[in-house]
Design brief:
Order of helices and strands: EEEEHEEEEEEE
Distance between the termini: 31 Å
Structural class: mainly beta
Helix content: under 10%
Number of strands: 11
Radius of gyration: 18 Å
Amino acid sequence: MEDNKLIDGAEYISLEDAKRLKLPYFEGLAAGFPSPASDYEHESLDMNEKFVHHPEASYFVRVKGESMIELGIFDEDICLVDRSEEITNGNIVVAFVNGGLTVKQIDLSTRDKGYLLQMPANPKYKPIIIDANDQFILQGKVTSIHRDTRKY
């Protein structure tokens, strides 16, 4: 999969060497008035346990571009993708389309008309129409989004 060229949205990142790291975990912090952090501390949180439900079927992609910003997916975000999750209308998916990977919301409502739509979440971009003439393989459902906020 590393040899696939990119189109409008995805770069494959392997999970093979992912390490388990448990860090202190705080829950229920207010976004308003502060209170003592010790009131919120729990054991620890392993990000793999929290977000990766099917390790054998999961991988990460790094997003390139701005086609999904209205759904909160920004350039350089990392999406966790699960190949074993059921994909339904409106899900955010990673798909192999005509030689490259893309991250889009899938519109299955036109399936009976012989085509699908890969929907961007930015009015600057047009939907990608997928029909029988296209090479199209669903690669999995995006199950979480991770962002490095140090760049802001």
